[in-house]
Amino acid sequence: MKKTTVLQVCMVFVVCSLQAVIGSPVDCPDQDTAGVSCIISLEKLLERAVQHAELIHHIAEESKLLFDEMLISFGVVNLHISEGTMCSPKTVSVPMSKTEIQQISDKWLLHSVLILVQFWINPLVDVQASLMNYQNAPSALVDRSKLMSTKITSLEQGILVLIRQILGEGGLVLEGPEDTSDHFVSSDTFETVRRDYSVIYCFRKDAHKIQTLLKLLKCRQIDKENCSLF
Amino acid sequence: MRNSGAVLILTFIAKLILQAAGVSPPGKPRLTSCRSPEKETFTCWWEPGGDGGLPTTYALYYHLENSETVYECPDYRTAGENSCYFNKNDTSLWVNYNITVVASNALGKNISDPVEVDVVYIVQPNTPENVTAVVVHDEQGPFVRVSWEKPRTADTRSGWITLIYQIRVKQEKDEKWEEYDAGMQKYYNVFSLHPDKECMVQVRCKPDHGFWSEWTQTTYVKMPNYIPRERSLWILITIFSIFIVLILTWTLNVKRNSMKLCLLPPVPGPKIKGFDKQLLKSGKTEEIFNTLVIQGFPPTTDYENLLVEYLEVYDNEKQELVLDGKELSEDFMKSKSSSDNDSGRGSCDSRTLLLEKCMDGREGSGSDQHQYSQHGETSWASTESSESQGAEPGYPESTDGRAKTWPVVFPQPHHHSPVGAVKPAYHSVPEILNQLSPHATPSNYHQLHHQDIPQQELWFSKSACRHSQSYNQFNLDVIDTPAPGVPPLPSLEYVEVQRVNPENMLLLRPLNREPERSDCTGEDYSKVKVVTSHNILLLQRDTSHQCVDDYSQADQCTTQQPPHPCKPAVHQWNSVMPQEGMRVMGNGYVDSTVLMPSF
């Protein structure tokens, strides 16, 4: 009798451990509502975030080039975006140099990234809608704008998960940015084009910023020893 | 008013003087490029426009995109002349710099066009370092492994910069470089290099968004001298197979004819005797078929006459068998019913008829004729044609096993003219007998006796076929009184041709079984040697016995060749008799069953 009970216990133990082993590194869809049972490792999360950022940046770069070609085909040569202020009406200061970045903490890194990502969701949607109204907008440009808006949204979700995982539940101190950017509607075609161009132009920069920040964060979190920063 | 005018005039004059002197305000400088090697610092270079003859100073001013504050270049020397170096503290990323250069000299200054620069997008790393190329020997052949290190300044470890590398290779005396992308790895294996040649290698790198670095210094590596084993093996195999193919071809060529015979044997053309291909080509079917038809077939009415000439000798045994249960005399006396089985007896068509007639007809001639007839029956050669059964439709049924009392009819030797001179067949017998009688011993003559039936056996030519009609022996009560000249023969014996007289008559002589004989048997002509194409039986002369005198005549008639001075020993058949039909027995006897009209 004793032996049988021992065996049963052993079996139960084995089964449970198996379940536990299988359960832990399960790949979950990158969703906010992921339950407790589904846990993705930090490394994979960061890797995914970095890939997202790289892809977004790549698409943004191509979009800018396509837009330039389109402007040339339109005959608008002198659409020169010289206003530097256009690109950085940020409520929160974002680090501008490597030294600055080296000095901020992970927490601030994450928050910066989140701010940036959240800032650009709406403008990208607007640009996408606006591009549909163009007469001769190249389809590649339109497709890329769509892709950008979708990817930025998923990246936002990923960042939130990261914050929750790295900083815990108390990490989300900052609220989402207010929807300060009024939807720019203008009947003037020139102004519309200008605005669209500036959005794409500035987003390209910020995409690179996001990518860099996330890479740094990944290095810090995973390979603390080899990272030259800090 | 007058003063301002005077000042203007003076200024104008001064300028003219200055221009004549060759001095002028400086030309417009131009910013050529701004580069950042590691995305942390950057440098800008400009090009002076012309100094105007006077010492000119240059100053670079910039301001960031979101501020109006103008700064001057912090460092003019680090990067060299006409350059401005921005260190880490002064470098802001993701911000556009608005940079201008101002050239100024004693006469004036000049401002360049502004340039907007974002440091992130002007990254051009330094060249990779420590490029090494090593020859690695592999079982498939040696190759070159090139390895390098990242540029010192680039911070790829933290992920600040992501660099991708490119390598290019050139072997001596080649015109173009071969470029290979190495990705983010820091080594590369170069294959397919020619042996025993010097190899030059260069490497460069680029950030994911930026400019390519400069190529490194050339690294040299010497490829070893090796022979690709695989290729040499294939070369050997190819040569060998070519050699074999050549040999085979030459052999085939030499043996061409025999090969042709072997593979394509000549097909014998069809040959039909009497068939003329020319006739076929001419297309006259009538003629063609006519040639195929053999004249004389089916046998015509001559056949009847021919049949008359035949003698038939029957097998004694069979007759014995047959006679056991039958009454001979009655049989053949009353065989009128089977009268249609005449085998050519001419006037004596039926058996009985012949006997009666013969006997009746010969009564006058005496017992000789009796004898004769009897003798005739027994003594003569019969051309038993029962051999050729299939070819003789008209032949009387020799297959009939019944004892047929065919009277043996002596075949007419010489004048076997087509139509029936058959009568002399048996007429000649008595003549012969008469001739023979003085010579022959009485005992040798054949005689028919009642009681000698079993012993009587007469063969001149024996038919091998068992269908041979049995020799019939007459049971005649006639032979009681032997002819005067004819002694009674005790038994039937073999007869041999003694000689052939000029009248083409066979002179028969019974075989002498007794050792002593008064007369020499002489030559033995009973053996037929061969039948010539003219349907001549060539009898073989057997000179076993001594014969001299009377047979000198016969000597001449040796039948080694068709004897012209002699009469042919055998009468000629007037029918076409192919030689093939004759059958020569082993002992020399001829089975002349084919002495029928043949086809």
Describe the structure.
The complex is a heterodimer of chains A (230) and B (599). Chain A is mostly helical. Chain A is built from 6 helices and no strands. Chain A has helices spanning 2-23, 42-74, 98-103, 106-132, 139-167, 189-222. In chain A, helix 2 (42-74) runs antiparallel to helix 5 and helix 4 (106-132) runs antiparallel to helix 6 (189-222). The longest helix of chain A is centred in the C-terminal third of the chain and has 34 residues, at 189-222. Chain A starts with a helix and ends in an 8-residue tail after the last helix. Mean pLDDT of chain A is 76; it is low at 22-26. Chain B has 599 residues and is α+β, with helices and mostly antiparallel strands. In chain B, the strands form 7 sheets. In chain B, strands 3, 4, 6, 7 and 8 form a 5-stranded antiparallel sheet that branches. Chain B has a 4-stranded antiparallel sheet with strand order 12-11-14-15, with no helix packed on it. Chain B has a 3-stranded antiparallel sheet with strand order 1-2-5, with no helix packed on it. In chain B, helix 10 packs across helix 11. Residues 320-339, 352-489, 513-521 and 544-582 of chain B have low confidence and may be disordered. Chains A and B meet through helix 2 and helix 6 of A and loops of B.
